[in-house]
Each structure stands twice: as C-alpha cells, then as structure tokens.
Amino acid sequence: MKNKICKLLATTIAFTMVLTGCSLTGNNNGSEGASDASIEASAEDSLDENGETTDAASESSSEIKVVEDLFEPEIDFASAEESSEDLAAAAASLEQEPERKINMVFFGDSQFANGRFDGSDIGRIVAYRVPNSVSYNLGIGGTTAALELSTTDTDLDEWTSKCFIGMVYALSGKIDRTRLLMDDQETLENMNNIDPKTVDYYFIEYGANDFFNKIPLDKYSSDADEIHTYYGALCMGIEELKRISPNAKIILMTPFYGIYKDSNGNFIGDSYIVSNGIGTLADYAKKNKNVADDEGIYDFDAMFMSKSDLYKDTVDQYLTDGTHLTLLGRQAFARLLSHYPNWLEGYEPYAYLETDKIVISEFNPNDYYRYRDDMLEAYYPENYKRMMNGEYLLAPPQE
Question: Which ranges constitute the DSSP H helices of 261-349?
Fold first, then answer.
C-alpha cells in the first residue's frame, strides 16, 4: 500500500509538471553541477566583487539610517495562520513510512516556526515537494543564532538558551533537552524523533532576531566571544552538526529581506538601509554567506533577489508585517528550497535549482517548476540526456 501511495504521488507530480511547465532564461552551463562545497543558490548577481549590493539594492544603500529602538513585529501564530488543510493532508500522505525516508531537520526562528499549527510551515511544504521525505521542525520564534549577550554563563549543565547553539547542543546530547524544552513539548517531541546519524539534510535560518538584538556580526566587530557573535555561533553550531551527522547536507539560509516601521506605523526603511548601530540586516546576510563559504556548505539567498522578487513593491504579498512570511511566501520559498534535496536525491536536474526564480505575481503554489526542454538541451546537455533516459522522477521526458 505504501509503495502504491508513493507511485501514485510520483505520477501525479509528473502529470502536474507537464501541464504547468514554465520557462526562464537559462544559464550557459552544460554541467550536471559543481561539487557539494561549491554549489550556491546565492546572491552573486546582486553583489559586486567587493561584496556590495547592486541593482535594486544599491538604490537605497547610499544612505544608512541608524535606528536605536528597532523591534520585531509581534505575531500571534495561533490566530494569524491562513487555512491550509490541503497542504497538511498532502504532507501527511508523504509521511507514510516509505522504504527509505529522507530525513530533513529545520533549525530557525519564526520564519520556520510559523505555520506549525495548520501544517503549512516551510518544513512541511518542502516535505510535500520532496518524495519519500519527512521533516522535523525545530524552529522557535524569537530565537537568535548567537547566545544572547545577556547570557554570560555557558555552563552546559545550567544551559537555558534556545538559540541555534543551544538547540544543536540539545540535539547532540551536550545539554538536557527535556529541561531546555520543558515549555515546548511539540518541539521536544520532534527532537526526540530525530536520530542525528540518519539525518540527510539540515536547513538553518537565523538573522532577524540577531539584528533586532544587536548581536555583533563577528569577533572583529566587537570584543564578544565567538558564541555571542552571529558568524561565530553559526560556525560553532554547523561544526557540531557535522560531527553528529557526518553524512548530512547543510543548507544555510540568509535572513529574509524586510521593511521596518516605527511604533506609529510609519515607514522607516528596508533591510538595505536601516542599521541597528552595528549593521543592516543585509550586512548580516552577507556575513551569513561568509559562513557558508568558510564551512563549505550550501547557501540560499533570501535577501538579495537572486531567487525571488521579494522587495519593497512585492513585500505585502510575501510578508504579513514587513518581517514574517505569509502563507504564499512560505510556499514560494519552500519550492525554492525543495530543489536542494530533489537535485541531490536525483529526482530532478541541477538546472532546476540553478534557474528557478519566483515572480510572486505569477506564482502558483500548486505548480512544479519545469525548465524548458529545448533550453535544458542547449545549456544543460547532461541533464537533458538523463531526463530523456527517464532518470528523474520529477522531470520525466515530455511526450
């Protein structure tokens, strides 16, 4: 019965892809893809050789505004979630214990935590798009990557912080997870169901709360210990994940582009120009990319428009309050993220990961991305050959 469900799903996905195919301009790259350490779904097109933002970003980067009283908009996760029964049911149908499960773990803040009440969180939607997969959501709203500056006691026996480092230490057994998550039984249950040795993919997303809490970017921008810096904490957590899950692939997301308003609802600026006194959120995104490069892991750009058109003129469709993703925003970025496991598991061509860019006005959450066959043949000949041989579950040859 389980095999029948998986086969039916694959057939349905393939049929949907044929009917709802879309095309974009291709890159002139004929290879299957570079090595794991070098492939990036990044913001290179939006950064110049010095790492500065270009194009749309440069329009607003010339005048930095330092704002002392920045705050994260509060959101009631239980009441603010849009209904998504179809997504929840579809995701549940994928978790019917296939012969070999693809285990995906999501560490992050509210961008990952949001949607858990109705099954429309990013992790579940990614699982909906990746055959034979199951997601474990460890996202907790309001958390930072770094250990909070107010916390000076790093004794593991007394650890209380749910920051990225704390959550990784809880997963690895360095700290008592039951004590740490005693007031979050759902997350505790998710963590208890994870065997680090069998994790295939880690998705990591932090930065907005580090920005709002004025966490130093790195040890060079302050005299703080590594664990109290954004760069240092991400590197420390990733190294621990590599230790406990040596075969897992790690995808590090930048913080999401956003806009900011004062307490009266007046527009202040966006992620390129509003500074917390240390840097803009775009600076944290650049530092995030430094981590991915230095750690030799995959990086995913949610800031510089390389993978979507999230910007001032589309922010209301992607974000509820200038910061948190809407259901449509979660669906859009889940589609983009799903290309990593789908490519690495051999379900679809590398070309899909490299060329998919979502224009929110044209986005249909039920679509599966399909790169045009003629362009696949021209720019990705090895991908095209494999597709014609029927090697891709999610990219069958078109009749």
Answer: 281-295, 315-318, 327-344
Question: From the centroid of its chain, how far is CA 385?
Answer: 30
pLDDT in tens, 376-388: 999 999 999 999 9
Tokens describing residue 51: 């790492």
What percentage of residues in the chain have a pLDDT greater than 70?
A: 76
Residue 332, SS3?
A: helix
CATH architecture of 34-370: 3-Layer(aba) Sandwich (3.40)
Q: Give tens-digit pLDDT for 206-217.
A: 999 999 999 999
**C-alpha torsion sign, points 239, 132, 366, 13:** positive
Contact between 388 and 149 (Cβ < 8 Å): no
Distance of CA 121 to the CA centre of its chain: 11
- Where exactly are the structural domains of the chain? 34-370
What's the pLDDT band for 66 if we cut at 50, 70, 90?
Answer: confident
358 φ/ψ angles, rounded to the nearest 5 degrees: -95, 125
Residues 6+ apart with CB under 8 A from 50: none
For 104, list phi and psi in degrees, rounded to 5: -120, 130
Q: 88: which 2 tokens?
A: 């929840």
Q: What pTM was computed for the model?
A: 0.81
